[in-house]
Amino acid sequence: MIGNYKVITLCGSTRFKDEFLQVQKELTLQGNIVISVGLFGHAGDFEVWENMNEGTLTKAKEMLDDMHKRKIDMADEIFVINVGGYIGDSTKSEIEYAKEHDKIVRYLENNLNRDNINNAIYLDEYKNYLVNFYCWPMDNAKSFIKKRKEILTNKYSDNYLLKIISDTNSFAKDVLMSDTIDYGYFIIEVNDDEPLFINLELHGGWMSDTIYIDSKGRYISKHLIKTIFGKETIIELKIDEVERITDDNICSFDYRYYIYMQGFSENLNMIRNSILGDNKKLVKKRRKGDIV
Question: What is the rounded CA–CA span in Å between residue 255 and residue 113?
Fold first, then answer.
């Protein structure tokens, strides 16, 4: 982060010149410092390679690859331009390098949806909800909203919130692909029988969001699940008591904890299209006057 500006390095095949320029423009207008490629060797800058012998060409490409990793060093996150899901070897190595150095990795397109910068569930949108959520009227005062923003900034890192967003999207895809959802429910075991909370010190003991951790270690936001599947959707932790006979022929009981969902919208096919690539926005646009 430089000043108040996040630094984002673009990665991907230089054949996608138009997409690079579009993403660079939109991320910049969102208030980010964007670092891009120095040239488009596969889309218009062919003269760069002319008159180079094989040795010089190899050295130039090695230099450009190394320079781009230095650009990743300078960034808070990378944004991968993977049009049609294409990721070449150089880009794969850049993604691995970014992950090894604890950089956030975002994609133009991913396996969940057409996660472009116009349609993604943005970090800012999630933070906007957390800061502006209230149950008691007094919590809607500007002074309390400002206080919640400060708590959010100091207590919950962007990496943590981005993990919640990414994990919830992954979880939503599993729900939509399950065999049970058409019968009106979904079940998955949990790692932890206690949920986490995003606590911004609302009056009355209210939490801004509840986070469940499933058996895959994913952090699942109750708010984002309801945003995707509808406000009437129920998601909660449940427990079953299971009778078990021990080797000594003694009756004992085990406890099974799981996340249980029901009350799905009748528009499941539309939701499937949204999640799996129909370019439909999952989160409403920011309201005028909301503070982030």
Answer: 36
Closest CA to 209 of 199, 218, 219: 199
**Which residue has tokens 């009756």?**
251
Strand residue runs (E) in 36-91: 77-81
Are residues 10 and 78 in contact, defined by beta-carbon separation less than 8 angstroms? yes
Q: What count of other Cβ atoms lies within 10 Å of the Cβ of residue 48?
A: 15
What percent helix, strand, coil does the chain show, rounded to 5? 40, 20, 35
Distance between CA atoms of 111 and 11, rounded to whole angstroms?
18
> DSSP string of 238-253?
EEEEEEEE-TTS-EEE
Cα 16 from Cα 238, distance rounded (Å): 47
Q: Is the pLDDT of residue 251 over 90?
A: no
Report phi then psi at 110, rounded to 5: -135, -175
What sign does the CA torsion over 233, 259, 223, 6 have?
negative
Answer whether 145's CB lies under 8 Å from 291's CB: yes
- Give the alpha-carbon dihedral of 175, 176, 178, 184, to 10 degrees: 80
Which one, of 88, 85, 118, 120, lies nearest residue 104 by Cα? 120
Rounded CA-CA distance 7/27 in Å is 10
Give the Cα separation of 145 and 130 in Å (integer): 10
pLDDT digit string (tens) for 54-81? 777 778 788 888 999 999 999 999 999 8
**Could you read off the pLDDT of 126-138 as tens digits, one per residue?**
888 899 998 999 9
- Phi/psi of residue 133, nearest 5 degrees: -65, 135
Q: What is the pTM of this model?
A: 0.54
- Whole-angstrom Cα distance, residue 34 to residue 24? 6
